Amino acid sequence: MPESSLHYPGFYVIGRALREHRSARKMSLRQLARLLDISPSHLSGWENGDRRIPAIPLGWMLGLLKVPPTESHLLIRLHAMAERASYVERIDSDVLTIQRAYDRFTLHTYEWAPRIVPDLLQTFDYAHALPGAPTPQPDKVDQEIFARRVRQVDRDPRHRHTLLLGSAALTLECVPPEVLQTQLQAITNPGSERRVDTRIVTAETSIAATIEPFIIYETTEKASTVVLKHAHSTVYLSDPTTVQQYKATFDAIQRKAVSYEPTSSC
Predict the structure, then answer these.
(1) Which terminal residue of the chain has fewer beta carbons within 10 Å of its beta carbon, N or C?
(2) Does the pLDDT value for residue 194 go beyond 70?
């Protein structure tokens, strides 16, 4: 396997996106390769993430496949940072984030959430019970629910999500017990469409006491990116040594985690 695909999962994400749009256009690999004047095997390498797509052919493909402008801009930004060991993205609510691409196209998410249920997995009632949550408005409610459902549906059917949830998330004073119970059932029910393997990490687990939240996105080729979210920016780390350190940390926390057991009250 080419070394690049192991070190740069951004290649994989871009390739998956392009392959999905090609399939949606009912265009064969050979047809698109002919339009680009390259060999099908070369195009296959781009789609599989084995090779870096040069900027100009990427632009041609986005145009030929009629990729919507918002997603085109997202993939172009991802392309710009695909070979970097680290990348910082400013959080802008009006722009699709690179994390959305990882949510959509990688096949396994490992997430450590010590204090609250992660945004993507929150129910509406839970989200609006948190400190600083906006006052509910009908239009915003519909938009928020729709956006989160779309992000879930867009994931590859094979996608797995392993969540380690800190026990602090089970005792939030601002969240009514019935809301918290519904939220936990939504992500721990084995039959849930969210497909989240949830484990609880107790407050007594010293190894997790000072570790801030992080996410690891993994591709089918085991290439991974670590994502750290801050108040106004998101940091992406793909350096193999750094990724391995975060994986080791996740494994250490997971060994101390226990299965969630629902109770009648919170």
Answers:
(1) N
(2) no
d(CA 73, CA 79) in angstroms, rounded, equals 10
- The reported pLDDT for the residue numbered 23 is 94
pLDDT tens track for 96-115: 788 888 988 888 999 999 98
106 and 218 Cβ atoms separated by less than 8 Å: yes
What is the predicted pLDDT for the residue at 75?
93
Domain boundaries, the chain: 3-81, 86-259
How deeply is 1 buried, as exposed, middle or buried, from its count of CB atoms within 10 A (0-12, 13-18, 19+)?
A: exposed
User: Would residue 57 be called left, alpha or beta, if left means φ above 0 and alpha means ψ between -120 and 50 degrees?
Assistant: alpha
Which pTM value belongs to this model? 0.83
